[in-house]
Amino acid sequence: MKNLSITLIFSALCAISLNAQSRHVQWTYESKEISPDLYEISIVAEPDFGWHIYDTVRTEFGPTATTISFDTAGGTETVGELEIDGKLHRFYDDVFMMEIGYFEGKVVFRQKVRVSGTATSVSAQIEWMACNDANCDRPMVENIVIPIVR
């Protein structure tokens, strides 16, 4: 019975450890007023040294692309395209048999949004996958709320 208890405890700890997800990318965000109803949202990704995130091009068979989706409910609308400031590397990947792009180091994603009414924040969802030369984290999703300072 003692061995069974030890085995169950060990199995539970292993399961917890396998489900624990290292976070190799830190995200920060802010808003900047451009005009009374127009704001620039900046979302910054900073992968750990040696880690990278994939570009924003979605493919059917490739790695999980970095995507940022803004919630347009409640009187918020995106204006223009998402702008990206970061060094994009491209290479042909033999595993996926396609060209893949990724960012190393700090990457800034900027999106202009029009906010109507008395909104005090903008909601967004970030999806990404981080990898280094040896392995990858599973794809991650984070919901964020960016305060609007009027």
List the helices and strands and how they pair.
Blueprint: H1 2-19, E1 25-35, E2 38-47, E3 52-54, E4 67-70, E5 76-85, E6 88-93, E7 98-104, E8 107-115, E9 121-128, E10 130-131, E11 140-147
Antiparallel strand pairs: 1-2, 2-8, 3-7, 3-10, 4-9, 5-8, 6-7, 9-11
Protein architecture, described:
With 150 residues, the protein is mainly beta. The protein has a single domain (23-147), classed as Immunoglobulin-like. The protein is built from one helix and eleven strands; from the N terminus they run H-E-E-E-E-E-E-E-E-E-E-E. It has one helix spanning 2-19, and strands at residues 25-35, 38-47, 52-54, 67-70, 76-85, 88-93, 98-104, 107-115, 121-128, 130-131, 140-147. Strands 1-2-8-5 form a four-stranded antiparallel beta sheet, with no helix packed on it. It has a four-stranded antiparallel beta sheet with strand order 6-7-3-10, with no helix packed on it. A three-stranded antiparallel beta sheet has the order 4-9-11, with no helix packed on it. Strand 6 (88-93) and strand 7 form a beta hairpin. The N and C termini lie far apart (64 Å).
Strand portion: over 45%
Termini distance? 64 Å
The CATH homologous superfamily is called Thiol:disulfide interchange protein DsbD, N-terminal domain
Number of strands: 11
Count of alpha/pi helices: 1
Q: What class do helices, strands and sheet pairing give?
A: mainly beta
What is the domain tally? 1
In percent, how helical is the residue content? 10-25%
CATH architecture: Sandwich
Strand order of the largest sheet: 1-2-8-5
Q: What is the H/E string? A: HEEEEEEEEEEE
On the 0-100 scale, what is the average pLDDT? 85
Q: Multimeric state of these chains?
A: single chain
Which CATH C-level class is it?
Answer: Mainly Beta
Note the overall shape.
elongated
Low-confidence spans: 3-20
CATH topology: Immunoglobulin-like
Q: What is the radius of gyration?
A: 20 Å
Q: Largest sheet at a glance?
A: 4 strands, antiparallel
